[in-house]
Amino acid sequence: LTMRLFAEERRIGTIEALLTAPVSATSVVLAKYLATLSTYVFMWAPTVLYSVILRKTGDVDWHVVLASYVGVIGIGAGYLAVGTLMSSMTKSQLIAMMLTTLVIFGLLILGIGERIFQPGPLRSLCGHVSVLSQVDEFSKGIVDLRRLVFEATLVALPLFITTRVVDSWRWG
């Protein structure tokens, strides 16, 4: 969803028209990010029907379902922000995709350290970024504020850096 956001526009030269428009770099980045995020959310929307169908045959714990959707959307939002950043750093869609995959894979590997390291600060750090633990907690209906703060940080930091990168194109 994100590998083409900025990379393709820079490659074919249409980014200049966008940068000369009377909009800020923040507006450009947020508009592109929110477009991909809404596409991502709409891709998950049909799965709500599964819960509705299951409700007809048994009991559905709607708090767990809602927590699971919060987790899926939060993790996806963070990954989309990373993809947006990587797309702004290169003119190649392929390189943007590979960089995004490497960062996400690095976070996954770091999270696996939670299951490997002995109890201590390193294991706590790995547990904090572990996507596997996040998905496990959300699927049980547990919404931990630490997880939400991590996801918000994983959205805000790459988008801030992306805004700085796009702003640098205007002046450099």
Helix and strand topology:
Layout lengths: L6 H6 L2 H6 L4 H20 L3 H10 L4 H27 L4 H24 L4 H9 L1 H9 L5 H27 L1
Helix pairs in contact: 3-5, 3-9, 5-6, 5-8, 5-9, 6-7
Keywords:
single chain; 172 residues; mainly alpha; 9 helices
Distance between the termini: 27 Å
Give the SSE string: HHHHHHHHH
Largest sheet: none
Total number of helical segments? 9
Beta-strand segment tally:
0
> Given the C-alpha coordinates, what overall shape results?
globular
Task: Give the low-pLDDT segments.
Answer: none
Mean of pLDDT:
92
**Quaternary arrangement of the chains shown?**
single chain
Work out the radius of gyration: 19 Å
> Which bin fits the share of residues in helices?
over 70%
Proportion of strand residues: under 5%
Give a description of the structure:
The chain is an all-alpha fold and 172 residues long. Helix content is 80%, strand content 0%. It has nine helices and no strands. The protein has helices at 7-12, 15-20, 25-44, 48-57, 62-88, 93-116, 121-129, 131-139, 145-171. The longest helix is centred in the middle third of the chain and has 27 residues, at 62-88. The two termini are 27 Å apart.
Summarize the model shown.
By secondary structure, the chain is an all-alpha fold. It has helices at residues 7-12, 15-20, 25-44, 48-57, 62-88, 93-116, 121-129, 131-139, 145-171.
